[in-house]
């Protein structure tokens, strides 16, 4: 659907709501409704019912309009938190939460503040995709600030890591006696009514820490989200060769839009409609790379970037999704 048609459609819907409310008021007056509170409540319910129908227009892909959505209650929100040159993604479904990565050690306090502003007191699932500061540096700050259900990190020879932020992470886990697990590929966890499935890492050892990245696919109703951390081409090929269903509506670009990730073959298998890139304005790595952005453009994908928009919030319910 073109942007012009979408704007026209939204305008027509707004006009329809206003007209419906006016007609309803005239009917109330004509029928002698004396209780204004009851009339106001009835008008509110009418407007809400019409607004509910608008939610069905969230899904822009015309080819899917006849596909019945799976029955789910409520909505799921995904917050791609702006942590500069790093990653932090919060999933909320009902009263259940999952935080994937926490930005750098310096950004840990910002992530904690963001979550507290949302009223969050517990993180049911905390995932550190791989042991790099821009993804796991803020883990200790988060663990020390919230009740944690379980922590997942890749099994990549943790005893060999001696950086300050990682030692802080180990101490926080020990001091709070947090449950710590390694992901099992194919394992499915629940975030309320949403499913989170582990798709990587697929080998016991790598020479590049990025390839240890925990890849997750989140499914809520008919909406599918794929997050692959900093997985490089090698890890992407492993997911393809193992025959995993990686198709998703929303894909968080791997490695901040690097051209050593996000291969054309992998993206064609994911077949997303939307891409989210987490990166910092003017970062020294040149992320996202020109080659990657050209590929997104070639595939006609809608791209959202934290360096341009700040934190990005995606909401999905049983009728569709919106940003």
Question: Helix and strand string, N-terminal first?
Answer: HHEEEHEHHEHEEEEEHEHEHEHEE
Overall shape: it is globular
- Write down the Rg: 22 Å
Which CATH class of the largest domain is shown?
A: Alpha Beta
**Looking at CATH, which topology of the largest domain would you report?**
Metallo-beta-lactamase, Chain A
Strand segment count: 15
CATH superfamily of the largest domain: Ribonuclease Z/Hydroxyacylglutathione hydrolase-like
Counting structural domains, the number is 2
The number of helical elements comes to 10
The span between the termini is: 16 Å
Low-confidence stretches: 1-10, 46-57, 60-69
Write out the strand line-up for the largest beta sheet, numbering strands in chain order: 6-5-4-3-2-1-14-15
Fraction of residues in H or I helices: 25-40%
Average pLDDT figure: 85
Q: Under the CATH scheme, which architecture of the largest domain would be assigned?
A: 4-Layer Sandwich
Strand content: 15-25%
Short description:
The chain is α/β, with parallel strands linked by helices. The protein has helices at 3-30, 36-54, 108-117, 133-136, 139-145, 164-175, 233-241, 264-270, 290-298, 306-309; strands at 75-80, 89-93, 96-100, 122-127, 147-152, 180-181, 188-191, 194-200, 215-220, 223-227, 250-252, 274-277, 302-305, 312-317, 320-322.
Structure description:
Helix content is 34%, strand content 22%. With 323 residues, it is an alpha/beta fold. The protein folds into two domains: 3-57; 75-322, Ribonuclease Z/Hydroxyacylglutathione hydrolase-like (Metallo-beta-lactamase, Chain A). An eight-stranded mixed β-sheet has the order 6-5-4-3-2-1-14-15, covered by helices on one side. The radius of gyration is 22 Å and the shape is globular.
